[in-house]
Amino acid sequence: MSRISHAFRFCALSFYCVAFSLIATVAMSNAASAQNAVSVVSDARVAGDLARTRFILDMDGEVGYNLSFLSHPYRLVIDLPSVTFEFPRDFVPKGRGLVRSWRYGSISKGRSRVVLDLNSPVALDKTFLLPGVQDQPTRLVIDLTESSPAEFEAAVGQATSHAQPVGATASVPKQDTQDPAARAENDLPVIIIDPGHGGIDSGAVGSNGTLEKAIVLNFGRFLKEKLDKLGYYQVYLTRDDDKFISLGNRTKLARGKGADLFISIHADSITNGAETTRGASIYTLSERASDRMAAALARRENYSDVIGGVDFSDEPEEVTDILVELTRRETKNFSIHFARLVVEELKSATTVIKNPLRSAGFQVLKSHDVPSVLIELGFLSNNLDEKMLGSDEWRERVSDAIVQATNGFFRARIAQQ
């Protein structure tokens, strides 16, 4: 064998040894990084449009994080402790709205980073970390709104640190120094929270005996307490104990208080598909139901008055005045707007059903001048949902989501206070 052949063999062997050593080193480094990681990031997504965009990271544990802006070009940097990115095999980072694209990775020992490449200047509207509940992961949520170049440049270099998880309610607009009780009550939006059923009408019953009327009353009280603490609203419950109230009297109470928003709270139950059908949904009024499930649900909810023995003979006929009809159309648009806000917030907080925004002819939503929605928190007929509906962690997340949607709905009026 020639010297050239020996030399070639030696070089080839040396190359493979070096390559194997490098591969082993990288593998050991990745294994060490994974072992030292404080959390696994399993999914991410971007939602919204050019006016408002939301970025969400799903992970299996709570972490601290820092946010900072960079210009030329416009970017938002999310610094994390060491995390492991384990996205699905076919996962591709995609931009949307204000986010043109985004990337992620480890930048040094003990540090990971996500960089959002922005289409235009943005402002940080709010950010919060939602703790994991049941089968829902921990979620880091970042909301961005369109801004001006000057405002963006002013924010460059001003990093915000979140060493501990931040609840969603921490991101609402700052209160002024005036005592909320001292403000003229007429200037505050009026919100009616309507816990469904009550008294002789128990509503749905879970497989383990959970009563819908009890679940929604507890949730309604909790939501009212959160909204009251903000000082931006006048909040009333249609019922604060276990009593029956007719559907008509619920809407009359709302109109009597001059309500700006009516939120009816329920929990659904079905027979067919009970083991697999779960998640929250939200309904607006429509004489023509969006689907069979919506139609069936409306029939069940409208049956409440029959259960309570209400006499319909004195009910007034439908008003057909053209001005009332125009008001009804405008109210419907406001209702749909609020419902969409709730859906977007709920997607980050809990499981939602397929096509969660639905409509049907609910009697309780028929106030022609009060934006009204009916929120189904979940399915008591599903064992997982039934268990989740009794969870304090779940209640915290879902109520925070509705609070955020409410603040978004009344954003302009809050800014004037």
From TrEMBL:
The keyword Hydrolase applies. Residues 1-31 form the signal peptide. The keyword Hydrolase applies. Residues 155-181 are annotated as: Disordered. Its EC number is 3.5.1.28. It catalyses: Hydrolyzes the link between N-acetylmuramoyl residues and L-amino acid residues in certain cell-wall glycopeptides. Keywords: Hydrolase, Signal. Pfam families: Amidase_3 (PF01520), AMIN (PF11741). Residues 251-407 form the MurNAc-LAA domain. This is N-acetylmuramoyl-L-alanine amidase.
